[in-house]
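Sample intake sheet
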Amino acid sequence: MDTVSVNQFRDNLKNYVDQVASNHTPLKVTRRAGEAFVVVSADDWERDQETLYVLQNSSLMKQIADSLATHNARTGYTPTSEEMDEITGL
């Protein structure tokens, strides 16, 4: 993660915001007399919040673990070719 001072950030606000939004990389902004803060794009923030929700939800994590176990054991549901065509939109 890149780091800039609050003065650099203020002087080049548009460029830094464009960089964060287009590269999907957070930017740490430091302040001389205070805590630093991080600038992230809205899309990245929402994605991270969704990921945290799933990771904190024990029911969803169990479903994922069970699905992975059946997939690895090749004992899960296998769709028919017609179902696969419908799923893939062919």
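Comment: The longest strand covers residues 34-39. The chain has two domains: 2-40, 41-76.
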